[in-house]
Amino acid sequence: MATLDLPALSLVVLVGASGSGKSTFAARLFGPFETISSDWCRGVVSNDPEDQSATDAAFDLLHHAAGLRLAAGLLTVVDATNVQPHARRELVALAREHDVLPVAIVLDPPQEVCVARNAARTDRSVPSRVVTRQRDQLRRSLRGLGREGFRTVHVLHGVEEIDAATIERRPLRSDRRDEAGPFDVIGDVHGCRGELETLLGRLGYVIVRDDAGRPVDARHPEGRRALFVGDLVDRGPDSAGVLRLVMGMVGAGHALAVPGNHEAKLVRALDGRPVQTAHGLAGTLAQLAAEPEEFRREVRDFCDGLVAHLVLDEGRLVVAHAGLKEEYHNRASGRVRAFALYGDTTGESDEDGLPVRLPWADDYRGKAMVLYGHTPSADAVWVNNTMCLDTGCVFGGRLSALRYPEKEVVQVSAEQVWCEPPRPFLVSGPAASATRDPDVLDVTDVLGKRVVETTLAGRVTVAEENAAGALEVMSRFATDPRHLLYLPPTMSPCATAPEGADLLEHPAQAFAQYASDGVDRVVCEEKHMGSRAVVLVCRTREVAAARFALPAGSTGVVHTRTGRPFFDDARTEELLAVVRDAADAADVWASVGASLPGDGTGAPVDWLLLDAELLPWSLNSGDLLREQYAAVGAAARASTRATLDTLTTAAARGLDVGDLLESTARRAADADAFTAAYRPYVWATDGLRGVRLAPFQLLAAGRASGGATFEQRDHLWHLGVADALVAADPHDVLLTTRRLVVDPADPASVEAGTRWWTDLTAAGGEGMVVKPLANLVRGPRGTVQPGIKVRGREYLRIIYGPEYTTRANLERLRSRNLGRKRALALREYALGIEALHRVVADEPLWRVHEAVFAVLALESEPVDPRL
Amino acid sequence: MLLTLTTTRPDDATPASDLGYLLHKHPARVQTFDSGTVHVLYPEADDERCTVAVLLEVDPVALVRGTGRREPFVLAQYVNDRPYTASSQLVVAMGRVFRSALTGRCDARPDLVDRRWPLEVHVPVVGCTGGPEAAQRLLAPLGWEVEATPLPLDPQVPAWGDSRYVDLRLRGTHRVADALSHLYVLLPALDGTKHYWVDEGEVDKLLRAGGDWLAVHPARDEIARRYLARSRALATFALDRLAEVEGVAPFEATDDDAASPSGGAAAPEPSADVPLVRQRHEAVLAALRASDARTVVDLGCGEGAFVGRLLDEGYARVVGTDVSVRALTTAARRLHLDTMPERVRARVDLVQSSVTYTDARIAGFDAAVLMEVVEHLDPPRLAAMERVVLGVARPRTLVVTTPNAEHNVRYPALAAGGVRHDDHRFEWTRAQFRTWAQRSAGAHGYTVSFAPVGPDDPDVGPPTQLAVFRRQAQPTTGAGPEVRSDGTTSDPTTRATNDATTRTTSNPTSTEGDR
């Protein structure tokens, strides 16, 4: 009984004459969707599975369908006679196009079986001469199938063999998804054995030596494994020693390795094939020449047996010598191997004679982390979730390793310059990360319908037209995406007060909602009626430049809820200096740093991201106030007053205008109240004078890399950080946020909360925001609203118009639909938190920007703007 | 909202209160129409003096609920001046309650119709774009003595100054029908918001409807513009909602930014017979001709005026990009994209793109144009634009134009400083432009040359400055790999490899050979 080995992802081409049993074979051994038959395709395009005139269209369809499946990474079987070379050639090309292995399975039962089966068919019949011709063609093809490009060819003769055959799907050699690590991924060693030993020591490995004192293995007491990205040999002082150590580690199961281009060339040299011995190969060969023949053979077989790339840890980690773009992960073809060994090149050489390499990592958008080497770089930096670990040790740079999954870089310096680099190689300090390629954002990162994965709310969809609108706002107004880390979510108001109340919003509804959500403590925070401001402040210019690519002299940003800077650079710095001074004086850097979760160092943080209100409202919304609110107020006052005069004169004449006079007097009073409603939010500023900043939440904080978010800390902790800043501010710019904790299930507490709100709004306050004290709360119905606003009766005049408090108007306005707003608030909240998580996880810019951009895009969804 | 019309005796024999006959409304009664929203009453009515008041009560909530139209500012529907100002709603009501008077009919006293009455009109609040001067311009030629007093925005915040509303008083001797017809057309015209673009046919229609007086009115074009501007449908784009969250006016792509400097009145074009926008188009076209380009991408094409020019010039492939969907929609309409002959349509595309995001669709062109675009970017974002255009798209030729700030002193409206358009984030002097262009050209392997656009003033230079960037040929590769500071190389040109495909669309009817 034959067991046919198949790569788990392959294009299986069945080859056999009509009546050879291909369809039966396929139906028995493959899934119902895995097989695409040419007869079926003929039927689709012509209504007749035998219509030979439809063959061209049928094969178009077949190739297209097979291509879509292969692109999706699905094994596909082609059920057609495939006895002619040109038919197979197209399928081999299709397999290569999708970087999967083509496999041929030839079914060759005796002629009479085919003929008999055809004769027995009721639906169609193929004349026996056709079968004869097909079998002839098949026979002629058999020997050349390997040359045609089929990596595996199985030939089954006879009915019994065909019926008994089974298949065995083998994972690709690159597929090591079950290996979860942890790993220490080590960059290009190039024969630097001493540095490698030092690095392994620093990583915690214990080196095992043979009798001659030569290192032959290294094991980690915690079972970690080393993972070499290739280019173990050439240029350096002891390539043979490096090979001995690494081969020992791999053999003992203490390491994995992928080959580099230098190993590939070494294999060719050891096989006696002609190669150029420049770039250090001559040295390696000389070292190996001093070794026994057996060692040379082991080296040859070891290097030859390495798989060009490895996909590890459930697909989360990919290692290849020169990197690998996402389409090539877990694929197999000549070009995949070439990419993994040599990278993406233009095929051209530059003025130094070096190949022109393409910055594939700039365009990389894959989920898997890709670690690679090959291109000596001054420092190991993240580019879109990829890192090049070749830091030029052999050229006098450093030998680098990355701890996975910790993402911690460990390096040792070269003992000396072992090889002069082909062009000046600059070793730089840690600040070099500031020189990383600036923005690698592409329009395809944001345009079109998008789905953003969030930990809080799952997949959040952004409609295409909303993304289009956001692109304009983001491009024209927002600050540089590299320091736009967060946009605040919209917030829902409380449920509408019931009929009969003389207002639309009342604290009772907010408390009731949280009580029904099972929230036992809420905090009421005063709403300042300023503009929402997000403040990123760095401790030093160096951190600002290195961590957020802020321009020289800039230490942060202060931006609006749509990402637009509030001030020019000078005033921004002035305001940031106020926050920084306060953070210095209160030593907030240290106190936040000491409590950073998941980090034992307790070192001070270097940057803070604050959620705040910036006052006065007129500062940012002067035009709006002037041209909308003040203008309507002016018109309302003048119009109602003139009408009142006219009606008074008419009444004096004895005309009956009683009702009109009364309603006009009421309108005049409303017009005055409307004007009075916006005035508390207007005052003059000059420079920073008159400007107030009220921080109320610490969104995130971190160091030169990494950081933490604080949505799990309760709001009194957040307000405590804010209070510390306010108390330490000598400039009188920072403003405290009044608050009151309420138990929504306790009537007395609710009563106190209501009184607090009533006093606040009676004194001209905007209102308050009620939040779960514990901050992020997940209830039985999902995430609980992170905040609910309860706005004051007078404040709402500038939202609902001067005359909204008239009983008839109020009753009509009560029917407002909060559902959309609430859902939107939760989705934007999830996206905001997601963006922050991505920031502190040092994720690629496009990942952070994707979430931030989505908040802006959702803001353009049509919801009632009064809510 | 309120309007009063007062008359004194037209002659000794006619009491002032005869106005009631003409208006067909009895002076002793308070009459109510339109289910209680329009009231007509006479606060005074005797032989010497008679005043009629039209009072319109607008329900602000119904106003919101009843209309599907969107206003430029999202809360405008709810915080709305319409219940308080004399605008179309008042004149529509007036037209209904005074229909016979407006058409010059009075069955009871036909003799009153053609009598000229000494009239005083008072409209306590009327929107008046352009201030009291505009009221003067529109009403004085008709024989009215105009007293238009601006209303302050907020007496407690004097720094805010006046609102766009005036208290309007008109005095003059007119037939009542004429006076009403003046108000009927001119009150909404005064209120008229910004003019965008009006079809010729619509202008004719209004002129016919406006009667004899409008046809000979010296400001009739302005009246038509103001009147018709109001009826322009406002597109509902996501942008509106977004921009307005912060009270930012949506950007209006205008044909010529210089025509609408901040501060109101248009900056005149000194010594320029040809509008500057035309001169700019010609200058950029000349630069493109000199570059032998066959394919051109117009980055920031706005409403597509220059894309149209490029098509007319016969370029084999023309792509206009803009970050504004609204601008592109207008461009598609103005270029008649959907009715274009296939052969022409195949040469042109409009796509939404941003100069701060890399985009494969703008790569591979012989030439790119950034006409009056850079000054709309915040200076810190220029580096991203340079990378996107010069670093990644890498056209062989790039033509950039931008205002010359030195020239602004030649515009009276800008003499005291300021920029030519509200959205300009900066305007460069010639030296600043050169410094920027030379630095960014050098950083990306381009050479750059400069030229003036418009009359080159000996003291302050031309109104517009132009730079032509040319990609330098690379000694070995020809494509120009970028040597990075870390010693590796990259060649961003090949990120987008549609160079070959764009060439295949070349148009055999191109006039390239004629030039």
TrEMBL record, chain A:
<dbReference type="InterPro" id="IPR003593">
    <property type="entry name" value="AAA+_ATPase"/>
</dbReference>
<dbReference type="Pfam" id="PF00149">
    <property type="entry name" value="Metallophos"/>
</dbReference>
<dbReference type="InterPro" id="IPR027417">
    <property type="entry name" value="P-loop_NTPase"/>
</dbReference>
<dbReference type="InterPro" id="IPR032380">
    <property type="entry name" value="PNKP_ligase_dom"/>
</dbReference>
<feature type="domain" description="AAA+ ATPase">
    <location>
        <begin position="8"/>
        <end position="213"/>
    </location>
</feature>
<dbReference type="GO" id="GO:0016791">
    <property type="term" value="F:phosphatase activity"/>
</dbReference>
<keyword id="KW-0418">Kinase</keyword>
<protein>
    <submittedName>
        <fullName>Polynucleotide kinase-phosphatase</fullName>
    </submittedName>
</protein>
<dbReference type="InterPro" id="IPR029052">
    <property type="entry name" value="Metallo-depent_PP-like"/>
</dbReference>
<dbReference type="InterPro" id="IPR041780">
    <property type="entry name" value="MPP_PrpE-like"/>
</dbReference>
<dbReference type="GO" id="GO:0005737">
    <property type="term" value="C:cytoplasm"/>
</dbReference>
<keyword id="KW-0808">Transferase</keyword>
<dbReference type="InterPro" id="IPR024028">
    <property type="entry name" value="PNKP_bac"/>
</dbReference>
<dbReference type="GO" id="GO:0016301">
    <property type="term" value="F:kinase activity"/>
</dbReference>
<dbReference type="InterPro" id="IPR004843">
    <property type="entry name" value="Calcineurin-like_PHP"/>
</dbReference>
<dbReference type="Pfam" id="PF16542">
    <property type="entry name" value="PNKP_ligase"/>
</dbReference>
<dbReference type="InterPro" id="IPR050126">
    <property type="entry name" value="Ap4A_hydrolase"/>
</dbReference>
<dbReference type="Pfam" id="PF13671">
    <property type="entry name" value="AAA_33"/>
</dbReference>
TrEMBL record, chain B:
<feature type="region of interest" description="Disordered">
    <location>
        <begin position="470"/>
        <end position="515"/>
    </location>
</feature>
<dbReference type="GO" id="GO:0001510">
    <property type="term" value="P:RNA methylation"/>
</dbReference>
<keyword id="KW-0489">Methyltransferase</keyword>
<dbReference type="InterPro" id="IPR029063">
    <property type="entry name" value="SAM-dependent_MTases_sf"/>
</dbReference>
<keyword id="KW-0808">Transferase</keyword>
<keyword id="KW-0479">Metal-binding</keyword>
<dbReference type="GO" id="GO:0046872">
    <property type="term" value="F:metal ion binding"/>
</dbReference>
<dbReference type="InterPro" id="IPR024026">
    <property type="entry name" value="3'-RNA_MeTfrase_Hen1_bac"/>
</dbReference>
<keyword id="KW-0943">RNA-mediated gene silencing</keyword>
<dbReference type="GO" id="GO:0003723">
    <property type="term" value="F:RNA binding"/>
</dbReference>
<keyword id="KW-0949">S-adenosyl-L-methionine</keyword>
<feature type="domain" description="Methyltransferase">
    <location>
        <begin position="296"/>
        <end position="389"/>
    </location>
</feature>
<keyword id="KW-0460">Magnesium</keyword>
<dbReference type="InterPro" id="IPR024740">
    <property type="entry name" value="Hen1_N"/>
</dbReference>
<feature type="compositionally biased region" description="Low complexity">
    <location>
        <begin position="491"/>
        <end position="515"/>
    </location>
</feature>
<dbReference type="InterPro" id="IPR026610">
    <property type="entry name" value="Hen1"/>
</dbReference>
<comment type="similarity">
    <text>Belongs to the methyltransferase superfamily. HEN1 family.</text>
</comment>
<dbReference type="InterPro" id="IPR041698">
    <property type="entry name" value="Methyltransf_25"/>
</dbReference>
<dbReference type="InterPro" id="IPR038546">
    <property type="entry name" value="Hen1_N_sf"/>
</dbReference>
<dbReference type="Pfam" id="PF12623">
    <property type="entry name" value="Hen1_L"/>
</dbReference>
<feature type="region of interest" description="Disordered">
    <location>
        <begin position="253"/>
        <end position="272"/>
    </location>
</feature>
<dbReference type="Pfam" id="PF13649">
    <property type="entry name" value="Methyltransf_25"/>
</dbReference>
